[in-house]
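Before relying on records like the one below, remember that each one covers exactly one chain. Contacts with other chains, cofactors or solvent are not represented anywhere in the record.
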Amino acid sequence: MEALKIVFMGTPEFAVGILDSILKNNYEVVGVITAADKPAGRGQKIKYSAVKEYALGKNLHLLQPTNLKDESFLEELKALNANLQVVVAFRMLPKVVWEMPKYGTFNLHASLLPDYRGAAPINWAIINGETKTGVTTFFIDDKIDTGAMILSDAISISNEESAGQLHDRLMEVGSSTVVKTLALIKTGNLETKIQVESDGNKTAYKLNKENCKIDWTKSGMEIHNLIRGLSPYPTAWCYIKDENQEWNIKIYDAKFEPETHQETVGKILTTKKEIKIAVMDGYIKIESLKFPGKKKMTSSELLNGIRFSENAYAC
């Protein structure tokens, strides 16, 4: 069988780990496709994607199309003469792109498909309190995350693990799974498995302001899972109200302390170093958070400069 000539497509840090593993295993990457540069932050400075930064450092051939159906881009892609495309955290591809190479186009998805198809599988696995997740490689078809599966690899999720921590572990597992997938394609020893649809399949919905907001009327474990499932990004948030003041805050780390109590749900209780928020079945102890205009800090650091009244509550 002929040597693999790979075009890699990806954008965030997660994809960088996979691309690095492909190169370290001596596969030829003839091109890298990533998102177009865009302004970011208060200064609106142009920001490169993590994959672009890496590709430039490795002197890889780089393409940044804004339109994946543009004729000039398609001609440039075809001229690379790739016989395989690998996609990790990029975007939906038109058929003219994914069907171009001889050996097809496969994607690495950070879940055990068919569960958690969609934009945020790592976050939702934790938010939903899963104890197991993993990665899956599959051949791309004309829908999102529905193609024939090649390999999957499962790992456990600890009950205190954040999305950031799970992200890093899945990047390592994903790197290994992609390399194994490449070896199968190279040797021709490939067997795929069709995804089986069921009403019980869970979805990794796109994260937005609404589904990242903490609902303090939920159980302590549900709130705890939401906070760790959104940490460090995009971060769970809520309002804190005290007398005539209101703050929109982000909560990065918290612990759930089960306890029977008579406090009103949402009530904030503080000591000199601790912040707790009453929930129906206990307290959420805030470890680190961010107030508007301030940096991320621990609760004890915040309490050096802010004091809450007995009427303070979260909502």
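The first helix runs from residue 13 to 24.
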